[in-house]
C-alpha cells in the first residue's frame, strides 16, 4: 500500500464530539441512507416519462385521494405523515394502480419516495381473502428487505388482514408447507429456492413482482441471474416493477430483461453546485501540521456541524487519537462495525447530538448530511489512479440549490502532489480556492 489518503469532513460545536466512520459496499451504503433518512428529498426537477403506449393519457395525481385507495390504506398513508404524493409518486402511483396493471421501470435518487410507492401498489393489489402469496418483492440484502418490510407494516397498519413473510437466509420453513401470507419479501437466492426447490410459493399466482434497488442488486454476484430466474416463473400478466437509484448501462440492460414492455419514469438528481460554498486550502508539510491547522481552525471559529473524511482506517485511527488527546470526544466508526451501529452514529450526528463526524472517503460517499456547514478535506479526494476525484469533491462540498445555505470547505494540502490535485480541482470547477492562513483566521468568519 503506497499512500494512505485520508479524506475528512469535520463537524463541530461547543461540545467537541468526533466520530470516525469507515464503510465500503453499496448495499451497506444504501441501507445507511435509509436508516438515516426520515423525510423526503425534495426536488425541483420534473419527471421524465416514457410511456409504453405513447397515445394513452398520462395521469398524474396531486393528492392521495385521487388514487381511490382502500380506506384502510389511505389511513395508513396519512398515519405515516404523508400529506401529498412525492414528485415521483405523482406519476408512478397512477401507473402502478391502473387497470390493467402496467409495468414500470423507475429511477430516482434515494429518498424520493420509491419504496413508499411500490409498497402502496403491493398493498393495493393483494386480495386478503386469498391465503397465498400474491406479491413478491426482492431486495439486494437481508437488511434492506427488513427495512422495506417495516414500511409494509407501517403502511398496512390499518389493513391487518394482509400478512407479510420474509424470504431470507435463516428463515427455515418446514418442507412441504405452503405459505399463506400475501406478500413475500426477501433476497433473490432464498426467494428463488422458495419458488422452485421448496415450492413454498406458487409463482403462477403472483400478481406483482417488485425488484428494488436494481443498481445494488447487480453489484452482487449471482443476484442478477437469480432474479431473472424468478421472473421467468411468473405469469405473463404479472405486473413487473423495477426501481433503481442510478441508471448506468448495466442497470438499464438488467431492467429490460426483468420488465417487459415497460413504462419508464426518471427523475434527475438535483444538481449540486459550488456557487454558495467558500473554498479554502491550507498549506502544510505533514499530517501533524494538518492536524495543527485543524486545531487552529477549531479554536478560531464557531462551527455548527462539520465532517472530516479519511481514506484509510489507519489514518482515521491516528486522527481520532490526536483529537481525543486534544480533549475532543472521538467516536470511531469503522468498516468492521455493523451497519446498524454505523447508522446509529450517523443518525445521532444528523440529529445534532454530536457535532463532529470523521469519516473515510468510501463511507461518506453517498451519505447526505444536509445541515453540515463545514467540510474539511483532511486529504483531497483522488481516484485509484491518483487523479483528482472531482465528482466526490463536488458531492462532499457541493450543495443543491434548494438548501441555499452557505457552506465552508477547507482543503488540507501537504505535498506538491496534493497541491497539483488542488489546482486541477480548481480548474475543473473554474472556481477559485483561496489560500487560508491558519494563524490568522479572521477572514473566514
Ligand atoms: P426511496 O425508496 O426513493 O429511497 P422512500 O420511499 O424510502 O424513498 O422515502 C424516503 C422518505 O420519505 C421516507 O422516510 C418516507 O417515509 C418518506 N416519504 C415517502 N413518500 C412520502 C410522501 N408522499 N410524503 C412525505 N414523506 C414521504
UniProtKB/TrEMBL annotation:
GO molecular function per UniProt: ATP binding; hydrolase activity; RNA binding; RNA helicase activity
Q: What class of enzyme is it?
A: hydrolase
Pfam families with a match to the protein in the record: DEAD, Helicase_C
Where it mainly occurs, coarsely classed, is: cytoplasm
Query: What's the superkingdom here?
Result: Eukaryota
UniProt-annotated location(s): Cytoplasm; Nucleus
Q: Does the keyword DNA damage apply?
A: no
- Residues that span the membrane, as ranges: none
Domain Helicase ATP-binding residue range list: 95-265
Q: Where is the DEAD-box RNA helicase Q domain?
A: 62-90
Name used for this protein in its record: RNA helicase
EC numbers, comma separated:
3.6.4.13
Q: Provide the alphabetized UniProt keywords.
A: ATP-binding, Cytoplasm, Helicase, Hydrolase, Nucleotide-binding, Nucleus, RNA-binding
Q: Which reaction does it catalyse?
A: ATP + H2O = ADP + phosphate + H(+)
Location of the motif Q motif: 62-90
> Where in the numbering of this chain does the Helicase C-terminal domain appear?
276-444
Any one GO CC term of the record: cytoplasm
Amino acid at each position: 500500500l503506497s499512500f494512505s489518503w485520508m479524506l475528512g469532513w469535520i463537524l463541530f460545536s461547543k461540545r467537541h464530539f468526533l466520530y470516525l466512520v469507515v464503510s465500503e459496499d453499496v448495499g451497506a451504503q444504501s441501507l445507511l441512507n435509509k436508516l438515516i433518512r426520515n423525510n423526503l428529498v425534495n426536488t425541483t426537477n420534473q419527471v421524465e416519462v416514457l410511456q409504453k403506449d405513447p397515445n394513452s393519457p398520462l395521469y398524474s395525481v396531486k393528492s392521495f385521494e385521487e388514487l381511490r385507495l382502500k380506506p384502510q390504506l389511505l389511513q395508513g398513508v396519512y398515519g405515516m405523515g404523508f400529506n401529498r404524493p412525492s414528485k415521483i409518486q405523482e406519476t408512478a402511483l397512477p401507473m402502478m394502480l391502473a387497470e390493467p396493471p402496467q409495468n414500470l421501470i423507475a429511477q430516482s435518487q434515494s429518498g424520493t419516495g420509491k419504496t413508499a410507492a411500490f409498497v402502496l401498489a403491493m398493498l393495493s393489489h393483494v386480495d386478503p381473502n386469498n391465503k397465498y402469496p400474491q406479491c413478491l418483492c426482492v431486495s439486494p440484502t437481508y437488511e434492506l428487505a427488513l427495512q422495506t418490510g417495516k414500511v409494509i407494516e407501517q403502511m398496512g397498519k390499518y389493513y391487518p388482514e394482509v400478512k407479510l413473510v420474509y424470504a431470507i437466509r435463516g428463515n427455515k420453513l418446514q418442507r412441504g408447507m405452503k405459505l399463506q401470507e400475501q406478500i413475500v419479501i426477501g433476497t433473490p437466492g432464498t426467494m428463488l429456492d422458495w419458488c422452485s426447490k421448496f415450492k413454498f410459493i406458487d409463482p403462477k399466482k403472483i400478481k406483482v413482482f417488485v425488484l428494488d434497488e436494481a443498481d445494488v442488486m447487480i453489484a452482487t454476484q449471482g443476484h442478477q441471474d437469480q432474479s431473472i430466474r424468478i421472473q421467468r416463473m411468473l405469469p405473463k400478466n404479472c405486473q413487473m416493477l423495477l426501481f433503481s437509484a442510478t441508471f448506468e448501462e448495466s442497470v438499464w440492460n438488467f431492467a429490460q430483461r426483468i420488465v417487459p414492455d415497460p413504462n419508464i419514469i426518471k427523475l434527475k438528481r438535483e444538481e449540486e453546485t459550488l456557487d454558495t460554498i467558500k473554498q479554502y486550502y491550507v498549506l502544510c508539510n505533514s499530517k501533524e501540521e494538518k492536524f495543527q491547522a485543524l486545531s487552529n481552525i477549531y479554536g478560531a471559529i464557531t462551527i455548527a456541524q462539520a465532517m472530516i473524511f479519511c481514506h484509510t482506517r489507519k489514518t482515521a485511527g491516528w486522527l481520532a487519537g490526536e483529537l481525543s488527546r486534544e480533549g475532543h470526544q472521538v467516536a470511531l466508526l469503522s468498516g468492521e462495525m455493523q451497519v446498524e451501529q454505523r447508522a446509529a452514529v450517523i443518525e445521532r450526528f444528523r440529529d445534532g447530538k454530536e457535532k463532529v463526524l470523521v469519516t473515510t472517503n468510501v463511507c461518506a460517499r453517498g451519505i447526505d448530511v444536509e445541515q453540515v456547514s463545514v467540510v474539511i478535506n483532511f486529504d483531497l479526494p483522488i481516484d485509484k489512479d491518483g487523479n483528482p476525484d472531482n465528482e466526490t469533491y463536488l458531492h462532499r462540498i457541493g450543495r443543491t440549490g434548494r438548501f441555499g445555505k452557505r457552506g465552508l470547505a477547507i482543503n488540507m494540502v501537504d505535498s506538491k502532489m496534493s497541491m497539483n490535485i488542488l489546482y486541477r480541482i480548481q480548474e475543473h470547477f473554474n472556481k477559485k480556492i483561496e489560500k487560508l492562513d491558519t494563524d490568522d483566521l479572521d477572514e473566514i468568519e
